Amino acid sequence: MPFSHGFAVVLGSLDDFQAEGPIGFGRYRHGMLWVGTPEGSYRCAVDVDTRLDSEPLRWRIQPLRVSEWSNLLALPDGRHQLVAPETIAVPGNGGTDYIRDLRLYDLIYLPEIPTPVPPSYPFPPEEHLGELLPHRRPLDGASVAGFSVGERRAMRGIAGGDSAARIVRRPAGQPQIHMSTPMRFGGSAGHVIAVRPPWNVGTSGAALLDLEAVLQGAVRVIVMGENFNDESHEKGLHNVHQNQGDIIGGGFARENGIWHDGITIAVRSDGTAAAFMNRFEDQSDRTDDTGRPI
Question: Which of 6, 58, 152, 220 could be a cystine partner for 267, CB 3.0 to 4.6 Å?
C-alpha cells in the first residue's frame, strides 16, 4: 500500500554525511545525509541495518546512464512529491523500482551471428548430391597411367566403396536470448538484453563504507524515500531502501508496493552518476503487481 506520508525526492548539495549506529536514529543503523536545498537542509536516513546482525544486508552500486534520468535531473533543488499518500505507485510517477526499472539494469548489446556460407569445395553442386564424388569413383586406366601396380592397388583401395554419404548443409544456429529487444547498432542487427547485477551481501559497516565511497566528491545528490511524519516537524526522508517483497504477515508488509523504492544517487563533476541501492535479506527479489513477494 502507499506510504502514510507520501513518497518524495530531495535534490541538492551534500552538506554532511554520517554513519550512525542503532542508537543514533530510532532503532536501526543508518547512513545519514544532510541535503542542502534553497528551503533548508533535509535529513535523509538510508537504512542499512542488519537487524541486530541476525541477517546480512544486501546492497549494490549501479552506474547510471544519465540520459535516462533527464526528467529527474531537470528538477530544481528541493523536495518534490512523487506519490501522494492516496495514490497507487505506477510507472512514470518519477519513482523507481529495483525489480521493474530497466534504468537500474546493465544493458548488453549482442549482435546477430550470421549463418556461415557453405564453401564451394569440396561440396558438389546440388544436382550431384547423392552421387559418387570424384574421389569415391573407381579409377580407370587413364587416371592411373604412370603409376606402378602396387601404387595402383593402394589407390584403388583408398578410392574403393560403392556408395557416397549425402552432404548435409545446416546453419550454425543462434544463441538463445532472454529479456531482449531487437535493435540495430552501427548498421548491424542484434538484440539488447537487460542484466541485473548481483547484490553484495555483508554487514552494515561494509555497506556504509560503500555508500560513503559513492558520495565522495558528489556535486549533487538525489534521495528518494518517504517523508518524515508531520509530528516530527523536521524536513527529511526515511524508508530509503527497497519497499517491496516484505514477508506477508511481517511488520513491514504494509509498506509493500511498486515504483516507490528508496534510492540514493550521486552526481559527479564530470556528469556521470551512480546509485546506491539497498534491501534486507528477508525481502524477495520477485514481487507481484502490488509489491507482495512471489
Answer: 220
